[in-house]
């Protein structure tokens, strides 16, 4: 079944991966693995997603996303480059404190100007464009899709879905191992749940 056969279109669930060393140290991420506690948390939360086993699962190519989808029990997973982390260029692996000391003007530009890419990677506007293309693709696909990705992608998707200004990207807080739900079709999305923490069955 595809979006065209349902009056409310596609139902999309975005899941963020659990914690990594980069998150713990406020560093721009590299392709690091999950912390052991993050793997355990994802396994503990898997029961909450039992009803999604028949969904079309997508996963960003980063190791931490692939580890997350495995821990959650996703099956028939498609590795999707559209769900990859924002390209932080030569800032990968560096902490905010390091950059505040070494490149304060660049960091300030990144945090305020959606067109700035002082790290040589993607600007926020580039990321929003990528999120728009991804939503347009998913919005005409299987009626139930689960995507395991990064907080930056979830934030970009929310900005696009809400038709918010690019500056809204910095005003959204999306934590590790959270769930965000949308429904709709290209150009017409409704946000139904935002960054709700995945809890284990025991909680």
UniProtKB/TrEMBL annotation:
It comes from the Bacteria. This is Histidine phosphatase family protein. The lineage of its organism: Bacteria, Bacillati, Actinomycetota, Actinomycetes, Cryptosporangiales. Pfam families: His_Phos_1.
């Amino acid at each position: 079944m595809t979006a065209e056969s349902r009056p409310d279109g596609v139902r999309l669930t975005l899941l963020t991966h659990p914690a990594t060393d980069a998150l713990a140290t406020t560093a721009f991420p590299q392709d690091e693995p999950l912390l052991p506690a993050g793997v355990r948390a994802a396994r503990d939360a898997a029961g909450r997603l039992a009803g999604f086993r028949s969904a079309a699962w997508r996963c960003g190519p980063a190791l931490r996303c692939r580890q997350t989808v495995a821990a959650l029990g996703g099956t028939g997973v498609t590795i999707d480059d559209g769900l990859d982390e924002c390209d932080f260029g030569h800032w990968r692996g560096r902490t905010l404190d390091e950059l505040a000391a070494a490149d304060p003007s660049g960091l300030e530009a990144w945090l305020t100007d959606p067109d700035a890419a002082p790290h040589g990677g993607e600007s926020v506007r580039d990321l929003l464009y990528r999120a728009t293309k991804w939503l347009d693709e998913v919005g005409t696909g299987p009626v139930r899709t689960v995507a395991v990705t990064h907080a930056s992608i979830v934030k970009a998707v929310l900005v696009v879905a809400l038709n918010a200004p690019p500056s809204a990207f910095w005003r959204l807080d999306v934590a590790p191992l959270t769930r965000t739900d949308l429904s709709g079709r290209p150009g017409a999305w409704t946000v139904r749940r935002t960054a709700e923490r995945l809890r284990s069955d025991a909680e």
